[in-house]
Amino acid sequence: MTLDEIEAFVTIARLGSFTETSRRLGRSQPAISRRIDELEDALGAPLFERVGRRAVLTEAGEALLPHAEAALAAVRDGERAVRDLARGGPSLLRIAIVGTLAVSHLVEALRAFEARFENASIELTTATSREVSACVRRGEAHLGLRYFPDPDPMLVSTRLGHEKLFVIVSASHPLRQRRLRSLARLEGERWLGFPPQRGEPESFGHLLERTLAAAGFVAPRFTAVDSLTAQKRLVEAGLGVALMPKSSVREELRIGSLRAIEIQGMALEQPVVAIRRRRGLANPLAAAFLGLLRELTPELHDGA
């Protein structure tokens, strides 16, 4: 098993395509296919199957993936450790973050970080919570900021605070109150939200399920929508209601296409966590940035 084979395998698993992988790695497609053939021969099991034009992991591929990602991340750590030693310390902080957190909680911390560490730079990647974890696991980010802890034993999740959740309705929704004591007035509504994440005991989909059950709704109408933008557009069109933090709909609230209703009788919030790779290369810049984030974003803690 060679590093080139592992890199090809992890990249195909990420992109779902041999063709895209050959472009990303700057190798011919036959060369990429040969690396996977050799890896499969060495392991004695197929790692991918073709589903249409996509390459999908087999059960053996799923078993190999976290270990292959860890191996690549360890190599990247080694490269960084040598470079940092030559420079006298790290000069780059890579952060993967959920986009709505970048909008609502990051700006002041970034400004303070740049003022304190004038010779350091930050690279930001925005993604979904699941993708944030993948970036950290692969060693592509020193630090991740996402919603809900990640159960992956290769990652360490540290709770930073929470965001308060509101019921989001269209501007034309007949319910005009800004605050309600319970969800009872919304019984019978169609709820839009992310589906529960497979392999993650805590996710927004699980939270919505528990919230509706706690409200006493029997067989509530629910439509799974895996895109935040699509959820917002459907709510604007009056095709359902959703549970979201205000950071997700800041612009729509400003222009008045959506309205937020506070539910006073329920503790509706989603946790915000920082994740890092267990036994990964420590980056003091990441620790410094987290300290600034805690200091300068009190709204993250009180849910405003």
What features would you describe in this structure?
The protein folds into three domains: 69 residues, Arc Repressor Mutant, subunit A (Orthogonal Bundle), CATH 1.10.10.10; 120 residues, Periplasmic binding protein-like II (D-Maltodextrin-Binding Protein, domain 2); 107 residues, 3-Layer(aba) Sandwich (D-Maltodextrin-Binding Protein, domain 2). The model has no long low-confidence stretch (mean pLDDT 88). It is an alpha/beta fold and 304 residues long. The strands form two sheets. Strands 3, 4, 5, 6, 7, 8, 9, 10, 11 and 12 form a ten-stranded mixed sheet that branches. A two-stranded antiparallel ribbon has the order 1-2.
List keywords for this structure.
single chain; 304 residues; alpha/beta; Arc Repressor Mutant, subunit A; D-Maltodextrin-Binding Protein, domain 2; 3 domains; ten-stranded mixed sheet; 12 helices; 24% strand; globular
Secondary-structure map:
Blueprint: H1 3-15, H2 18-25, H3 29-43, E1 48-51, E2 54-57, H4 59-87, E3 92-98, H5 99-105, H6 107-116, E4 121-127, H7 129-137, E5 143-147, E6 155-170, E7 179-180, E8 190-193, H8 204-214, E9 221-224, H9 228-236, E10 241-245, H10 250-255, E11 258-263, E12 269-277, H11 284-296, H12 298-302
Helix pairs in contact: 1-2, 1-3, 1-4, 2-3, 6-11
